[in-house]
Amino acid sequence: MAKNDEFFIHVSDTPKRLFISRPESIKGDALSPCCMTPDDVDYEMSTGKHPEILEISGMNQQSLEYFVQNYGKTYRYLSFFKCQLIQDFSPLEDLENLEEVSLYWNIRSDKLWNFSKNTSLRTISISDAKKMTLKPDLLMTSNVMETVCFSGSIFNNYPMESLECFAGMPALKHLWLNNIRLNNKSLDPLKSIPALERFDFDAGMLTTEEIAWIVAKYPNLSGKCLCAYNKEDAMLNDVRVCGFRKPGLDLPQHQKRLDKYVAQFNALVEKYRNEP
């Protein structure tokens, strides 16, 4: 999912990064320490951090709560990068100015938080956080969230119970599921997401029949896999046929096979379009 250009953080943007810079404070794994203390927070913030945009690394529960209470009110974008030991993100409930939140790699927290007070929060991205991905029902507490992205790890598809956790979100426009495996693949929740404009997922997350059903029933819905094939998921091939266990193909040598898959897909769409 493309990040808001306003919130993009370059490697050289030191004022937009909060991490333990004092060597004497770093304990354990030097590559991803999670031992940030309130004193570390005060020291790092005293060096002139950006007041609205921040990528945070190595924060734990104590330092999260301290940061939110003492510095969080002004922030519009927060990225938690390798803060894997935070187990409760609910302090973020009090940040009314938040517009976007990104969480990458967490192994402790098993839920999100109540979003009803985050009246400016339009975008959330959750990556490599298996417990949080399973059943993120608290998303339904938001009346303003427009973009939601969940990603598993690059090595494994993470399970998500169903699409039910997105049902009833009145403002959701873009849903992106990357490296996600649905335990219950019912598509009924789509009818309860009235503002949805784009639904992106991996080419193998749904069957060809399920994809064709979505295309037939929601003709105004776009998405990289809401079609017979695409190039984005092709990997080592020229194109990837959309659908569970469907192949990648090389062109022009596999053009006849691709034409067959396209014809089958179009026939399915027509069939479901004519069904009540």
Keywords:
276 residues, alpha/beta, eight-stranded parallel β-sheet, 13 strands, elongated
Descriptive report:
This protein has 276 residues and is α/β, with parallel strands linked by helices. Helix content is 19%, strand content 18%. The strands form 3 sheets. The chain has an 8-stranded parallel beta sheet with strand order 1-2-3-4-5-6-8-10. Strands 11-12-13 form a 3-stranded antiparallel beta sheet, with helices on one face. A two-stranded parallel ribbon has the order 7-9. Helix 2 links the parallel strand 2 and strand 3. Helix 1 (38-45) packs across helix 2. The longest helix has 19 residues, at 255-273. The chain is elongated. The protein starts with 16 loop residues before the first strand and ends with a helix.
In terms of topology, how is this protein built?
Layout: E1 17-18, H1 38-45, E2 53-57, H2 61-71, E3 77-81, E4 100-104, E5 123-127, H3 130-134, E6 147-151, E7 158-160, E8 174-178, E9 180-182, E10 198-201, H4 208-217, E11 229-230, E12 239-241, E13 248-249, H5 255-273
Helix pairs in contact: 1-2, 4-5
The beta-strand count equals 13
**What order do the strands of the largest sheet run in, or round the barrel if closed?**
1-2-3-4-5-6-8-10
Helix-and-strand structural type: alpha/beta
Number of helices: 5
Q: What does the main sheet amount to?
A: 8 strands, parallel
Q: What is the succession of H and E elements?
A: EHEHEEEHEEEEEHEEEH
- What is the global morphology? elongated
What is the straight-line distance between the termini? Answer: 34 Å
Outline the low-pLDDT stretches: none
